[in-house]
What we know:
By secondary structure, the protein is mostly helical. The protein is built from 16 helices and two strands. The chain has one domain. It has helices at residues 3-35, 37-59, 63-86, 95-116, 128-150, 168-188, 192-211, 215-230, 239-259, 264-278, 293-307, 309-312, 327-335, 340-359, 366-381, 392-406, and strands at 120-121, 412-413. The chain starts with a helix and ends with a strand.
Amino acid sequence: MSNQKKFEKAANNEIEFLVMGLILLFSNVALYFISGIMVRYFALLLGLLFIFFAAYKRGKHHIHKIIPFCSFSLTYFVILGFISVFQNQVISYDRVKQIFGIIIIGCFFSGYLLSTSKIYFIENFKSWKVRGLTVIIIFGLMGFLRYYENISFYGTMRGYGEDTALNPVGVAFTFTLLFMVYLVLTIFSQNIFDKVLYGLGMSLSAAVVATTASRGAIIWAIVTIIFLVTSSRIKKIKVSKFFILMLLGIIFSGFVFLFFSKSVILIESFELLIDRFSGLFGSSNKTSSGLDISADSRIQYWNHYASIFSDWIFFGERFYSGYPHNQYLEILVRFGLLGIPLLVFSLFVIGQFINSFLLKKKQKDFELALISAIFLFAYLSSLSSLNLEMNRAMWLGLGYFFGYFTRRSRLIYN
């Protein structure tokens, strides 16, 4: 076997672990409904390990080159950690948040190592392991929908019952990310069987998102899809084929809805989703601001932090435990002036991302399209929801694209 073939095989193997890791990371909730809570946590852990392993496998011979960046970044993160302890913020004593904090740092460095060690530009990705995993995930998604069909809401119209402790916003976020993974897989697949299989996973993921009645996830997903279309200089996709695939996905989602249409709960969920969109600036649940309760609460958060500006601008808010619903505001409220480098870093990466892929329309292979889709959706979501520790996809993308935009290009085009 020639050296080029060996490199190509190794590159595909690395991407295979990355894709499986992302699928497990975003679908572990669905596995709960076919195998229980321990399998869910195992899938979450395995997904993270696969992503870390993909980064290590690709960059093990280049790790010494990223030590200066990692050392500098880690020092900065430690300083932010000291600020949190000094100000007695919730992460200083909440073990779960501390673990999530370590995980996002791992995702950040993994993304950086993946992009700085990337040498192959791969457009045609296929894997029997990913196909097999997708079959399992499809059963999990169907189990989720069947569970949702049968549960009692204990008096509330939006949720998944008391036993699961699932949050509709979190479910919408993770399953939209899973939708993005399967969307990119569907687009780049050459085999009709793969397109049907990944399209099925994509459609069922969309059906799960619909059950959350989450406006934010749907709005940001639409923006991300528009970005993928308008920024596409992908050799293996035509816009017409893309819209055909989307149409098939919509039709399939309609079949899913009809299949579960006898469920009063599911009907109420779709009605609630329509209600929440129509009520955003409408008369239902309208507040004095002219917005509905959910949107108004975000304005209230932002106004609150603006009114106590002097309490957090220097070293962050003491006893911080809130949820500002905005990445930029959260960085400043938690870390004060010391958070400005992180804020500038975030703006730099998203600015370069938009300039390179939307304005200049740089060509994207499978891996770039995949990371672009999940990063953009996660980043946009951070502007209206989620906190920094929970947004693992955003941190993976921040590390990946900072490495991509600052390194010397060494890509080998197949």
